Amino acid sequence: MTFVDFKKLLLDADVTLPKFANLIKVSDKNIQSYKKKGEVPNTIAVIAKMFALMTQKEINYKDHIKELNLKKKKKEGSGFSSKNNLIEKEIPIS
Question: Would you list the domain boundaries of the chain?
Fold first, then answer.
């Protein structure tokens, strides 16, 4: 699915991109990165389509999603400085 079609589905679902990202517990930057690629992954496309259909059927999907108690994943050790610290620990200095 193209990013443009994805954005149209979000409009149909009555949800903004940041609210969509927060609802499914992914970073807003992650969702925005699909704009550069021009396409969204299949799973994200399916979620957006289901949200749009549920909105059309007047199903309050937001409460159902919140009941799942989804958690945001935290980045661990992905920074440049953490790699340097790892290298310093592995190489003993005489």
Answer: 3-90
